[in-house]
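Hi L.,

As promised, MFS transporter:
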Amino acid sequence: MQHEVSHPSVPTTLAPLRNPAFRSIWTATQISSLGWLVQTVAISWLMATISASDLMVALVQAASTLPVFLLSILAGAIADNFSRRWVMFAGHSLIALASTTLMISVGLGFVHPWLILGLGFLAGCGFALNDPAWHASVGDILHKRDIPAAVTLMSVGYNIVRSVGPALGGVILAFFGPLAAFALAALSDLAPLSAIWRTKWKVRSSPLPREAMTTAIHDGVRFTVMSLEIRAAIARATLFGLASISILALLPLVVRDQLKSGPIAYGILLAGFGAGAFIAGMSNGFLRRIMSQNRLVAFASVACAACCLSLALTSSVPVAAISLALGGAGWLVTWTGIDVSVQLASPRWVVGRTLSIYYALSAGGMAAGSWIWGLLAQNYSLTSALEGAAGALLLVAAAGIVLPIRPWEEKDQESSDFRAPELALDLKPRSGPIVAKVDYSISEKNMDAFLGCMRAKRHALSRAGARNWTLQRNLQTPSLWTETFRTPTWMDFLRLNHRLTAADQETYEHLGALHDGELPPRTVLSIERTTEAARTRASTIFSRPPR
């Protein structure tokens, strides 16, 4: 694994750029993002000119985010089981294919609303494949302490481009037409493909065989559901995406109907959104020092609510640009904070899947929000839709009371160096079920501490794949406690132990310190065999006809 030491003279936010692998892909991603934003401006404005339906205009955002909802969980399992570098390459290839097809279609004069949405969906499939692998790779490329800075830098970089891309897109659209915008987007997609092809980084490989996709998805979902801090972060992200996407989904309608302006004004307003995000990103470290992450995300939702309310009431382009800068700041602070929270709470073996579930549900929230706010604008009014979104964002801010974002903690989430025990039986990977038992001798004075450690151990084992965990106390010898859990197969037992992190091992050390026996607690392994199965096999043998 490549770890770069942060130089004290380099600002924290810029420290990850000292790593050549991160710097190469990050730079290429900004070039690609510039082309994508130019293309987004062209697509949104093209849809607004060829379709009279407000809903179809709003669905431009939904088309590119819906695949993330549908495919990200599968993409996360792929990112955790295959080379993340090649998964990223495949994702960018799909994005390049969509951009090139759109350029050729416009060049041939074949433009239809459903074609635009379909190619947006294809590009969204590329993003669904690339994003979990790229964000999970940050922890492979950089040291854990640089992950918050790297995630912030990725968001800041995108929003620097957002400050330039939409304005550039508006100029290209106004003076050269949509074909030039789509051609620029297609060319920009070559940058990340080239960077990923040329750049390599070391990844700690698992000694175990690759998991089946269904098993990998199941394990990722189980881990996410059982992780309170990840679950709360994803719930907040989904609610925020549902409400805040109204800003971008309805902005073309605000420009066309309320501000009575054209593509240049649309690009300027998007640039304002990006500028606000850039300022917030560069100030993110300072903001985290003066308030908790949970309160910071709540204030970010309030900022986006103020943006929506201002857009609903203004008819001035400068006022709208200032409002969008506030909304962009809230947008970046929220997504950066939640992204880092999910990354730091996830062990390396499952980080691609937890991130993919986060992307899937937040993208699902944005896709649903695009449809909801577009439908409200079409059936009622644009002002009513924006005011409703502002109210929803205030509720999202209040949700921090019951769904708090935990403080960022740099836990050691690397897998432990587990060595398989020597066995007297020759087990196959699918042999099982396996039963593990551990005996402890605990004095009465250590009882509360022991039970606390066992709760932590049960949580760690269950997230890693243990089944039917129990703790039993001996009635004849009350100081004797027996921990028992099962795994379906021998391979599942090996995976479970490889998934336990160094942080989980601290619980084992605490339990060892509480144990009163002369020897440390020892895990006794058994394989379940039933008499019914034996009778069935015996019956089968003895009922065979003689040869």
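The longest helix spans residues 20-50.

Thanks again for sending the construct details.

K.
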